[in-house]
Amino acid sequence: PEEVQVAVAGGGPAGLAAACALRSRGFDAHVFEGAEALLRRGTGTGIMVSANGWKALAACDAALPAALRAAGVEIVRQNITVCDEGGGVARAVGRDAGGMEERFGYAQYNVPWADAHAALAARLPGEVVHCGCKAVGYRDALEAGGVRLLLEGGQEVRCSLVVAADGAGSALRAQVAGAGEGGGDDARPTTQLLWNALIPTERLEGVSRELPGVHRPGEVEFVTCGLDGKAILAFDSGADGLTSWYLTLDESDAPEAVRAALRSGDFGGFGHAGRADALREAFSDFPGALALLRATDEAAIFERRLADRQPLSAEQWHDG
């Protein structure tokens, strides 16, 4: 379209939620997504939604909480185990989460990222989501009393408001915030490395649920492994009998094969050959992590280097 009331740049969960909220209040909000297809393969990532998250979703669209709960699984307990570098348990604490709904009005749930994304997309009419439309910037449209969203390829969309939800490499954030500390498009890579996967929970049958890092049904298992940034996380993911697991390491503690991949630029994405062996080396003293790796096809392991940004100041987060 050449003109809409509100243009939301980015069709991820944030952009879809923003569009749902705007449309539920009567605004003609359209989503402009750079990818050719809106829904895509999940990376095993899950979203933990607590009472404040459910309330925010309900404020966006009253139907969203039920849609996401249908795709998720309720958390009944959270366990934290503190281990030393050799895998010995120093301390273990747990907290039942079953009373959350009585106390706060909503239970805690784990929802797979891809399922949450799909549930949000289902609340929007197909004709207001435009794929293959990558936002590259904006400019004032003073003659129309608004703004023009600039798309890759030269197309412009006139609107009254642009909402920037175009992800980690946001072109709009760079333009709004400007260069310098707290602005620009310069996400800061950290030294934190993460691997995760989504596997059928049935593959863990016969594995002792007493092992730190192996979760019981409805429980979240988090293990710190004696070094800064080294941890195991596992939990039920969604309503389809799946387990989501995460392993994290600081770059300085990663095996040489991983550091070599970082140096060569061959790090990130799915299924790098030999990566499971490197993780087995790194977590050799943690049987729970080894059990998760045995249950996982190497091609299903997704890896990334985490990054963050300086927060925007009150003057930087908007233009106009």
Automatic annotation (TrEMBL):
Source species taxonomy: Eukaryota, Viridiplantae, Prasinodermophyta, Prasinodermophyceae, Prasinodermales
Species, as recorded: Prasinoderma singulare
Origin superkingdom: Eukaryota
SUPFAM superfamilies per UniProt: FAD/NAD(P)-binding domain (SSF51905)
InterPro entries from the UniProt entry: FAD/NAD-bd_sf (IPR036188)
UniProt protein name: FAD-binding domain-containing protein
One Pfam family, short name: NAD_binding_8
